[in-house]
Amino acid sequence: MSLSHSEPDTYTGWQREKSGFIGELSGVGFGLMAAASVVALVPVYAHSWGAALVALPLAGVLLLLAYGRVLGLAAEEWVLLAVRHQIAVATKRNLFYSGVFAPSNDEGDQPMDLPGVLARLRILNAPDGQGGQLGVVHNPIDNTYTLIARVTFPGLALVDTDRQNARVRQWAAYLRGQCKEDGAVIRIQVHQRSLPDDGEALRSWTVRHATTDAPAAAVQALDELMVSAGPAATIRETYLSVTLSAARARLAVRGAGGGQVGAAAVLVREWHAMHGSLSSAGLQVVELLDPRRVAATIRTAYDPEAQQMLAIRGSAAENASYQGVPPGVDPALAGPAAAEYTWGLYRHDGAWTVTYQVRNFPQSQVYATFLQPLLRPRTNARRSMSLVYEPVGPARARKELSKEKTRRQAARALRAKTGRTESEDERREAQVAHSQDVARASGQGVVRMVALIAVTVTDFEELETACAELQADASDAGLELRRCWGAQDEAFAAAALPLGMGLPPRRMAI
Fold it and tell me: Most exposed among 45, 93, 206, 244, judged by the fewest C-beta atoms under 10 Å?
């Protein structure tokens, strides 16, 4: 047996997408700048010092709103967020009540009741093509269908370098394979949860499987081990979500029978087609979630205390008291009984969640395991991390990268004319952009990507500690986090749930 002496691959080159109306200014920012210019000229045409005392400070405020930056956002965007939030609070749209207040249909059944942006979603029951059933999340507004699979991954930390590099390259090949022109798959989400485990499910399983003739010393040692190590254990759940656009796949949907049935059939076919590439990347599909398991995934995110009940029920499937009760949760009970979002916090049932966006990835070369600190076991909080990818077709990727290259060249020419020296950061950004354009021309894919991290506690006094620990772990990983101020409910839907929620329309990483 020969030992591998190759070096692990390193990664860098993440870029933030720029989509300003003119330069870094949004449409509103450009309007504020134009208004400031007009206001500043009023005293000149009025020949009045009194007008200047009023107009110049007003013009300064308008320019500050247009060009000022607060935690990565323009000042005018902060004002718009604050106004939107205050309107939601005044009209009580930040509150959600279900449970005993949930509506029912004409038959007396309670439909699935979810808050905010999730209210539009429906869980469909579709055949998996192998005799079973699976749950497909349908978004009728966007006309998308999402399939969710629970997967396991052997990890990278304990394997040799060659195998580690091969697995990462196969995952990259899988993403590159989705960067097709007008591809039906428009979004891929990798979602992982790190959950504190009190050991109740383990104790329940042990009681049911222990034999009466087991040695007393072994039973005592096992009891001591569960008492000490059980509550310190951590459950890891990993999900892979694939979202299909029925609009892009309309011909295939029509050929499969049309409507929701045809769209679900096309989605299942796309999933089976990508199964081989997922296996090559080391991903092992445990199960495709049926409607009740999809609902359970949603329920445990909103109500962490339900995790223990569902774990005990799942581990006690052989117990007669649980016979006849299917695993998972009725989709009508998937959502929270009550929820409320404030400026920087989301409260749902008996838990509180704060969601962060990864604003900047490391600029230095990093290894494939650089995200591991974010999911370190914590006994006081649960963490959820979502990596959302949107494949970009070759034509659009060429157009976007060409536009970015032209913008950088124009900025470099302007600096040369004004005698301003190019900084090392600007030079490095230009080199990264050039290398990405070369990689695209050689057949590599381009994806839009965002990372969101949610930290959830069931004791409000532990929240600030949990947030501080998360930010410290993010610093160890070389990441810059930003709290999703004013949008905690929407950020929770994307970060804490594997439902394939899309990226915002601007200012993402490419």
Answer: 45
